[in-house]
Amino acid sequence: MPATGQSHIRIARPSRDLVAAEHFWVSGLGLSVLFRAESEGGPDEHDLLMVGWPDASWHLELVQDAAVEPRPTEEDLLVVYLDEQVPQAVLSRLEAHGGKRVRSRNPYWDAWGATIQDPDGYRLVLSTRGWTNS
User: Tens of pLDDT along 48-63?
Assistant: First the structure.
């Protein structure tokens, strides 16, 4: 079956600390834990945490592997389009759960939302805009 607009997307990233990452993404943003696997210490094994909204067509896979270090840039963004103002309560909760509010390298995101750095240094943008493909 070919990929379509209905195909599920997995966004995979390395993480230094899955406990801190879960704290941010689940307790902070409100995603759910979809799957978890812990390594038994064998070669080529790693700890894994998948988070997302159960009804979404995407999820975030976080992998903790001593051989792979996160290397985020200022342009590694996960953008969530809210189509409304970013609730201050959500920003406060993300900061209380390990996030750090940062200015975006691209001023567009500061004008149209808020950028929060997760515990691994990757950036989440909560955009006040709605998504349109036109």
Answer: 999 999 999 999 999 9
Find, among 33, 37, 36, the residue nearest to 54 by Cα. Answer: 33
Residue carrying the six token digits 């995979």: 12
Q: Degrees (nearest 5) of the Cα angle 93, 70, 19?
A: 45
Alpha-carbon distance values, 129 to 3, 46, 48, 82, 115 (Å)? 27, 37, 32, 6, 14
Q: Is the pLDDT of residue 65 over 90?
A: no
Dihedral sign (CA 33, 23, 85, 78): negative
Encoding tokens for residue 28? 């902070």
Class of domain 9-127: alpha beta
CB 31 within 8 A of CB 11: no
End-to-end Cα distance, the chain: 27
pLDDT at 134 over 70: no
Average pLDDT, stretch 56-85? 94
Mean pLDDT, the chain, whole residue set: 93
